[in-house]
Amino acid sequence: MPRNQVSDIMNAGRESQGGMQATAAATSGMRFVETEKLLTCVHCGLCQSACPTYLELGTEADSPRGRIHLMRGLEDGRLEATPEVVRHLDLCLGCRACETACPSGVPYGALIEAARPWVEGHRPARARAARRMLAAALTTAWLRRALLAPARLAAGISWTRGWLAFAAALPRRRRGPLATVLEPEGAPRGTAVLVTGCIADSLFHDTNHATAALLRRAGVRVVVPRGQGCCGALPLHLGARDRAAALARSLARTLSETGADWVVSNAAGCGALLREYGHLLPGSDGATWVAGRARDALELLAELGLPAAREALPGAVAIHDPCHLVHGQGVQAQVRTLLATIPGIRLVDLPESDVCCGSAGTYNLTERAMARRLLERKLRHVAESGADVIAAANPGCLLQIRAGALARGLPVRVEHPIDLLARAQGV
Ligand code: SF4
Ligand code: SF4
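That is the input. Now the predicted structure with iron/sulfur cluster docked in place:
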């Protein structure tokens, strides 16, 4: 295939929306995406300036509109899955900022999610095997523990370079396992089943304790089933849809058996997928049950309200909006409302607060160069903000920004809003 096929597809898309539709109708290509979803894009380009990779590279093929053209080209057989095409799709963070910006309601997240498993089949065998191994390692408890053990040894030491900065950014684990049932303080207002997460529980276990304590304070009975495992988000990022579905089916069964009123997560990446369980597992009652009850912990706490804070936390706090919280779940104002109730906190602006930090699930493991560029962009804004604390409600963002700040010597702490609220509540 000539190398300019990608630009031909881009030009064709710009020139004629009608022509694209006619071609799509007469196709013989692969059917990996629902064509109707692709056709909702009217190529207006209003999503371009929200896309982190377009902001960095300025190339049409690395923008939402460009990637939609590529998917259509693949789907209707005008384009082959050459390494160049796969590269443009791989560079997509799956952040869904384009969905928020799109006035036509294009479900971009569903499109790229459908394309990823198909793209996997077009990689060289070694790359495919490496990605499968990564998905297995991250979602298998004993393998994950073995992988994280060396990082744990290095944790707390002031490393500032490369992966050692990530080890230094790991919080110390101070608490033991959570009880399986925690009764509410005061009159019960409902029951929540807490999704502890896989990586999230391995790295930010104490934040799960803080989440449970805050929910109890808000009058919620909290149940924490043992052996929950991964929700499926990490393998889905890597295109391992079958593995993601198997993990999701198991978790949906465990969660739905509790009969809780809410399914609560404090990890934005997990929470966004829980809401999509009905699409991931069509026809599964358990998945539909989970999707209908999934709530981010901050969203539920904002709705139920917390008693007045017991301690002041003086300082300037800027909020980073994780993609899967703001774009994936529409949760943004609630974080600000909750933190504004803490005496002493002065909320300051973080420019581009809803632009991806480069973490994006497994993206900072598989696309290190772009992940570093986006982290640098985020850190420039962190430095400009003058904040003492950056609040980020997602484990991946916490680790990414914390490691970057350490490596750059920025005098800023990076914390989950849940941990700030727990400290203010004295729990
Ligand atoms: S995805 Fe939406 S905003 Fe972007 S080009 Fe298509 S219709 Fe326009
Ligand atoms: S998901 Fe994010 S990176 Fe991918 S096209 Fe949309 S805005 Fe760009």
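Residues 50-53, 64, 67, 92-98, 108 surround iron/sulfur cluster (ligand 2) (CB under 6 Å).
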